[in-house]
Structure to design on (650 residues):
């Protein structure tokens, strides 16, 4: 029997009992659709995070204190400035130290609680940000300990609504110090989306103002400590060089030979860690969806076993007419594979449909982004065919091993 | 053409061995029209299964056109069934999903025969069903179904036609038609026809009757004047 006739025979057998065929398909359809849609949601989230982090600039490094002793941070402003050194650190392009404070920001009758960052002018370019309106903090304002502030768009909207905040006055108060008046000189562009790594709800002030006017922590030696240092490497390829230069300088300054009291993390490392975590999560989701695929396969096996029992006479007739074992075997295996392949195709269409539907739609207060990748779609279909093959073989072997006479006599 | 020597067939029923055939020796020559007759339980069905290569003998030898059937594996047996033997069953054994044409084509499908469609149509025409080729078995009368069965058996041009109680389920008119066709296939085409039956009326339509009882051949004799089935029903094409 040639392959074409085997296919025609299998299709006509499947067509003979449409309801059963559809029910057997359903398990695979649901499984494949589940795999594709969960994976696409997972991949979407991953892409979203990666895009957000990449928006910050991929040649960005963070130097953070590990906060060993009681004194908390041991990173000082002088540490930050020591990294601006063309000889010792040629791979470092820009350095932007920051002090992070939690504070109350008040304007007129409105008030909000937010992060207040003390920064230097380099911050804007190091973090790859643009101004929405107004000016950013200048070097002169840092020198003069000016009481000026740049607001994130979210804070600006909370405090001023649709009015232009530039030129307005806000009061910023942190834990210990008394609240002080700041003049708003600019508003940052809006990044929106994921709350990770965007400055929409931050208020930025000159770093000097932060520690002289609001609050500061100092080392035992009396130096001002800072929260972290943002470093921009001269080039993406120089990130590793920059890391080792920073490491050498800071170890020397801190007189440390063994475990350092700081960590240097590259943006790329952050992306890698996050995508790794998410990958694990996505795979986990995929495995759960894959289990439904397996259940679908068992459904196919069940249907095929029933089908073999129901068609024992047919098998007997075919064998009496000279069908060989492999003819019967291939007919039943092919029926199972056609079922699972059909289910896989329909499931892929459903899965892609679900992903499209969910994409950019707000569901339960969250906006999902989905990314349907060809590899997952093809993989899901291939796996479903493999499942059909696997679960179809046992019923087919049973069918092909029937003795022609006993099969013919079967009532 | 068919040469059975001292063939036995033993079935195991639980703990007991039952000998369905107990040393059968038969020779069937090409072009014969003969019947194997016996009451139920005589072993004639087992004999038919062995002759039809559906079942292998327990002992003894079976040569089909010189080939030792005992040495063949499942695939070899399937090949002989497919190419050399045309089966006609008492219960027709047509596939209900296929049309008359599809049923007649089926054995040739497994044998990868060329010109299946043409051969099938010719065979259906020979049994007087040229105008029923696209009917399914449920849309045909018993006699018509059996004629499809005969067309299926003869379309592949087998060496022998094995008919197991071919008219057992039919009324007398339809039975006459079937017997007419079988006789005609033998007389006009020289087809070897073996009919297995319990009915001496049917057996008397053949030229030689082998009587089987308790798994042995008790009589093997020529029929002096075989009954000729009426021609009218055969040509009338009624079901």
């Amino acid at each position: 029997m040639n392959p074409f006739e085997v296919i025609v025979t299998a299709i006509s057998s499947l067509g003979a009992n449409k309801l059963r065929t559809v029910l057997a398909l359903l398990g695979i359809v649901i499984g494949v659709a589940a795999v594709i849609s969960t994976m696409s949601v997972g991949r979407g989230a991953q892409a979203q995070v990666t895009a957000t982090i990449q928006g910050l600039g991929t040649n960005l490094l963070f130097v953070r204190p590990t906060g060993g002793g009681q004194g908390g941070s041991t990173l000082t402003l002088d540490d930050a400035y020591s990294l601006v050194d063309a000889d010792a650190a040629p791979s470092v392009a820009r350095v932007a130290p920051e002090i992070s404070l939690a504070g109350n920001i008040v304007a007129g009758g409105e008030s909000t609680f937010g992060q207040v960052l003390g920064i230097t002018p380099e911050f804007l370019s190091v973090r790859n940000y643009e101004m929405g309106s107004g000016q950013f903090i200048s070097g002169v304002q840092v020198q003069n300990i000016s009481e000026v502030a740049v607001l994130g768009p979210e804070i600006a909207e909370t405090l001023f609504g649709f009015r232009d905040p530039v030129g307005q006055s806000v009061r910023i108060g942190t834990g210990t110090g008394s609240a002080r008046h700041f003049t708003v000189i600019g508003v940052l562009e809006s990044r929106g989306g994921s709350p990770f790594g965007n400055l929409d709800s931050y208020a930025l002030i000159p770093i000097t103002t932060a520690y002289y006017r609001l609050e500061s922590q100092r080392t035992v030696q009396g130096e001002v400590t800072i929260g972290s240092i943002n470093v921009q490497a001269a080039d993406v390829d120089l990130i590793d060089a920059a890391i080792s230069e920073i490491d050498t300088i800071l170890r020397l300054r801190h007189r440390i030979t063994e475990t350092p009291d700081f960590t240097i993390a590259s943006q790329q490392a952050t992306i890698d860690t996050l995508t790794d975590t998410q990958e694990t999560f996505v795979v986990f989701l995929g495995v759960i969806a894959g289990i439904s695929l397996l259940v679908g396969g068992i459904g196919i096996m069940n249907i095929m076993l029933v089908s073999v029992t129901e068609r024992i006479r047919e098998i007997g007739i075919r064998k009496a007419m000279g069908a060989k074992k492999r003819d019967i075997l291939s007919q039943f295996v092919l029926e199972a594979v056609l079922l699972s392949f059909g289910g896989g195709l329909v499931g892929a269409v459903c899965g892609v449909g679900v992903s499209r539907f969910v994409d950019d739609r707000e569901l339960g207060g969250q906006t999902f982004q989905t990314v349907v990748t060809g590899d997952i779609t093809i993989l899901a279909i291939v796996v479903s065919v493999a499942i059909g093959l696997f679960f179809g073989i046992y019923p087919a072997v049973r069918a092909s091993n029937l003795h022609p006479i006993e099969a013919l006599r079967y009532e | 053409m068919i040469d059975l020597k001292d063939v036995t067939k033993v079935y195991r029923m639980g703990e007991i061995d039952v000998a369905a055939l107990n040393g059968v020796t038969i020779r069937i020559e090409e072009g014969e029209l003969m019947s194997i007759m016996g009451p139920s339980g005589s072993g004639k069905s087992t004999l038919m299964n062995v002759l039809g290569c559906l079942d292998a003998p327990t002992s003894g030898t079976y040569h089909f056109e010189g080939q030792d059937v005992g040495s063949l594996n499942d695939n070899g047996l399937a090949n002989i069934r497919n190419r050399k033997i045309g089966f006609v069953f008492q219960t027709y054994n047509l596939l209900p999903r296929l049309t008359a044409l599809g049923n007649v084509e089926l054995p040739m499908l497994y044998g990868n025969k060329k010109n299946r469609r043409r051969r099938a149509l010719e065979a259906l025409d020979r049994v007087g069903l040229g105008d029923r080729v696209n009917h399914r078995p449920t849309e045909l009368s018993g006699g018509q179904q059996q004629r499809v069965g005969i067309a299926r058996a003869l379309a592949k041009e087998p060496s022998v036609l094995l008919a197991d109680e071919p008219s057992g389920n039919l009324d007398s008119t339809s039975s006459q038609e079937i017997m007419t066709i079988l006789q005609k296939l033998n007389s006009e085409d020289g087809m070897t026809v073996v009919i297995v039956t319990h009915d001496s009326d049917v057996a008397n339509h053949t030229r030689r009757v082998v009587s089987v009882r308790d798994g042995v051949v008790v009589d093997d004799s020529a029929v002096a004047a075989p009954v000729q089935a009426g021609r009218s029903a055969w040509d009338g094409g009624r079901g």
Observations:
- Residues 232-239 of chain B have pLDDT under 50 and may be disordered.
